[in-house]
Design goal:
Elements lengths: L10 E5 L5 H6 L13 H10 L3 E8 L2 E10 L5 E8 L8 H15 L5 E5 L4 H9 L2 E6 L5 E5 L15
Parallel strand pairs: 4-5
Antiparallel strand pairs: 1-2, 2-3, 3-4, 5-7, 6-7
Length: 164
């Protein structure tokens, strides 16, 4: 590895394809996070079997540094299944940038409302999602907290449902 990339470097979301699949599979979360998120291998396997699932690689300075997967639901909503940044690149604002880019894509696709879930013990994720305008609305059968992106309020990030 060449060391962590900086947020100021060109950061973009790209589809996962044969040119970056291996790099996505090589991404790892910190050892303390293994129980908080499914592996990218599992995610890519799920996506190969479900055409509603969309996979994205976060690329910074021409390196794959993160991964995301969301579902385009038949009811027009979006559900973010996975968001992760490689352990080497955590703590540099890339998780927030990944979420911002993902939400831009979901808005552009007209997917509303947008949901995300996380393990209740994952306080870092909870704080990030809350800061972006996600509010707790339910729990999955496995105990995961379900959050919905709500309309922006004064000073908040939230979802602008009036946007085209």
């Amino acid at each position: 590895m060449n060391g962590p990339v900086a947020l100021g470097e060109h950061v973009r979301l790209v589809p996962v394809d044969e040119s970056n699949r291996r790099a996505c599979l090589a991404l790892r979360v910190h050892r303390t996070q293994h129980t908080l998120i499914a592996s990218n291998e599992k995610s890519l396997e799920q996506a190969s079997k479900n055409p509603q699932l969309v996979t994205r690689a976060l690329v910074a300075a021409d390196r794959v540094v993160g991964f995301a997967m969301y579902e385009r639901r038949r009811d027009g909503s979006g559900y973010i299944w996975r968001v992760m940044v490689d352990e080497e690149h955590q703590g540099h604002g890339l998780g927030r940038r990944l979420m911002e880019l993902l939400l831009e894509e979901l808005r552009a696709a007209g997917l509303r409302p947008v949901f995300i879930s996380h393990r209740p013990e994952n306080r870092v994720a909870a704080q990030l999602f809350e800061s972006l305008g996600f509010f707790e609305v339910d729990f999955e059968a496995d105990g995961e907290v379900v959050r919905e992106l709500r309309p922006a309020t004064a000073g908040g990030q939230g979802d602008d449902r009036s946007a085209p």
